[in-house]
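Class prep. Protein, please:
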Amino acid sequence: MKRIIPIIWLLSVIAIPACKKSNTSGDGTLATVITLPVSVTATTASSGGNVSADGGATVTERGVCWGTVINPTISGSHSSDGSGTGTFASAITGLIPNTTYYVRAYATNSNGTAYGNQVTTTTVVPDVYVAGYKNDFSYPVAAIWKNETLTMLSSGPSNANSVFVSGSDVYVAGYEKSSWNVATIWKNGVATALSTTPGDADAASVYVSGADVYAAGYENSGGKKVAKSWKNGVPTALTNGSFDAYAKSIYVAGADIYVAGYETNGTYNVAKIWKNGVVTALSNGSGDACATSVFVSGTDVYVAGYVRNGPKYIATVWKNAIPTSLTANTSDAYANSVFVSGTDVYVAGYEDNGFGTAAKLWKNGVASVLPNGANAGYPGYATGVFVTGADVYVSGFALCLCGGTNYTARIWKNAVPGYLSFSSNAKEIIANAVFVK
């Protein structure tokens, strides 16, 4: 008789391999890595890791990965911070303010990718700084807003044109009037005069790079405006005083100092840019033009301004000295500020819509009218633009009939308007520039 072997007994004597979780690149030992603490701002963070053991195979890549979902991996956002064992630092970019993120260090060898402990962090709500002035029917007085809280910088005639925040220090450029207008830098509300000789002067722009504070503007000499830049209070003349000139904006990229402005040719203002003191004309001198703002992104230099073409002023942006018109030759328009974020180029300014001027924002050349930037028949102006993460902030002002005929300072966040200040007993409250940190 043929013997029948029970299936249960058969299974018990046949060796069945146990399941084993495989690594990314086959069997072996992964590296050992831990995640370092995270330091976070509104849109960036810093972290890193420590690879204490390589698992018997060389660590070919290490860094941190992050995301808004737990246990982020290198298939999503991640940094690449060298190879081998030891401690490394990582920069985390492109974050959204007021958002929770999860961060893990990683280390990859031929056996796969190991992940460190998960660290949870939340980006902060950024501070919004705006520079301008308030005029209570007597004279303008320099002012700065932090998150819509107003602080006066002076008690006499003055103006704040530009603001830059570095660490916990707030720098503002403008002028204070004594016998004449004195170009001035305020650091945390304390004024320092940049110009010392008799004659009007103005600081139109401020930029901080490391421990160095740069400013641009003009100083009157012999009855002419001389375009100047200052580094830590030490002036450099950009023009020789033969014709009026005005430096409107300054940007520092590495060892290079860029200044945008204009110089007259005896008849018309010529838009110009200086790189380390060497000048390039942006317009041909056949009509008035001005370079109002400069921004450097990588190897590209962007300048905003305007050029007169026949009877009209054309809002213009230059990329590496090549102009692009933002408006047609049918209405006056002016570009006041440029900011580059990734591949997107933002320009703030205004255009006459036939019923008054309208505050506008151009993104990659496409215009949008900022709400409440101008009512029908009443003027509105956009003066500055700053982009952080996915948020676009624009400063400006507009005529408002709420309680009196006054100019009121405005701030737009993602095209949503808000008042910075309003006073029925003020002639005008003006916002000239915005900085977000």
Remarks:
- The helical segments are 7-13.
- The chain has two domains: 32-122, 128-436.
- Confidence is low (pLDDT under 50) at residues 1-26.
